[in-house]
Design a protein that fits this description.
Blueprint (H helix, E strand, L loop, with lengths): L1 E6 H10 L3 H5 L2 H8 L4 H18 L12 E3 L7 E3 L1 H10 L1 E10 L3 E10 L2
Antiparallel strand pairs: 1-5, 2-3, 4-5
Helix pairs in contact: 1-4, 3-4
Length: 119
């Protein structure tokens, strides 16, 4: 299990100060989803927290996995799509699915992730 709490202002600041932050951390699908909203920083913060929580549920940190190898879908029940290094890590652990729950306010985003497997 992994959990992360991310301040929305921190993500807003990163988006404003570092233009490449969007491409380095978020997939095209995640960017498209967040940009549909009046306050996209809330959705970006939720995705960022989601990626951190998923990394923790896989027993690793961001230095060992690429941010874009973890995608958090939007609209309805969120889903986790793994690829590349994240998928290889999950397979190595016997993880077949990662579930997440997301909540966010104007100030914070909170995500819990649960890595599930067959053992």
């Amino acid at each position: 299990m992994g959990v992360d709490l991310t301040p929305v202002d921190r993500v807003r600041s990163m988006l404003e100060r570092y233009p490449r932050f969007r491409e380095r951390c978020f997939t095209p699908h995640e960017r498209e989803y967040a940009d549909r909203f009046r306050k996209p920083e809330r959705r970006f913060a939720a995705r960022f927290a989601g990626k951190e929580a998923v990394m923790k549920s896989l027993g690793t940190g961001w230095r060992r996995l690429r941010w874009t190898d973890i995608e958090i879908t939007g609209g309805g029940k969120p889903r986790v799509n793994l690829s590349g290094t994240a998928l290889r890590r999950a397979e190595g652990l016997g993880v077949t699915e990662v579930q997440v729950t997301i909540t966010h306010t104007d100030e914070t985003a909170l995500v819990m992730a649960l890595a599930l497997g067959e053992h």
